Amino acid sequence: MTDESATWPLPKFYFSVTLAGQAVPFQEVSGLETEVQVIEYRGDNSGIFAPIKMPGLAKVGNVTLKKGIFATSDTLWSWFDQITMNTIARQTILVDLLDESGGVQYRWTLNNAFPTKLTGTDMKSDGNEVAVESVEIAYETIVISVP
What we know:
The protein is mainly β. 4% of the residues lie in helices and 48% in strands.
């Protein structure tokens, strides 16, 4: 077992996302989660009056990625536009949490990912914020690793 008290926790603001083999500058990543469904079962000859619990199928949620809109980049739209009648170019997405020198300290690998929703920016004539788009991504499995 590692001694977690010997080091500081990693800050969450320094990360990178790799999509289709290239780094894409996202400003926010949310929804990195996985869970195991619980199966309850009680045998007919059980000595206790309660079901036993055992792990069932693993389940993952969708991930939402947000980034600024650049006039010269249509990476997300090009990927989303490939969806035609249950056909999509699935990709592996890497989300890396980095240390102060830019080294990967923690990695989430999203396998067989594809976009399910693309949201453009809201627009206000009196606003002064950056235009931000978001994409919701479904994936089949997640692998969490410490390289």
